[in-house]
Amino acid sequence: MNKKTKKYVFKYTLEFLVIFLGISLSFIINNWKETKRDEALEIKYLKSLKEEYVSNLEGFDESFSYHKPRWENLDRFYKFSNKNSFKEMDSIVNILTLNWSFNPNLGATNSLISSGYIELIRNDAIKKLVSRMPFLIEDYTEEEKRTELVCVNMGYYLTEHYVYNPRNDKEKQKCVDLILSTPFRNKIYDMQLWLESIIKEGPELREDFLLLIALIDKELSERVNS
Fold it and tell me: For the whole model, what pTM was predicted?
């Protein structure tokens, strides 16, 4: 190989290396920028999820605080007899027929799942639990909806037959007779069937909320310290 040929080989080899290194460096920089962007988005989504589930936990606790007294007073209701006073019966009936529903906000959760951005979350435990949350919540709130329907029907029944704020003993006795009647007892029993699922599944759902919040907190803390 003569000097002229060597010169051309060297020249084109050098040009190739410069182009190759330029493209490689550009690719590395772009890849680094995309990684940083994805990490920033991931942190943003994690913070949104934490805010969402802290709020949902508060809403759940408020709702469940209304269900628990109803469940705890069912035995007292079934033991009612003519020996119980109207005041005592009326107090328990008011507790049993009070309904409250949990209305969760799943905006961030549903947005992440539908958009596919949930794949940006690298922690598999968080990703799996977030993906399952809409189904867990739907299962729980379905029981609430059924309980609410029973309570609504019971409300219509009471409006038709019950005497609110009775003025005399005759009206009080009418209320007592209704409370002790088989039709009203059966309505309470229908409500109990759905309420039982709420009481059983509620604490499990609450544990899922707490677990998800704890996992997100840990993940965010590790990102800050890394």
Answer: 0.81
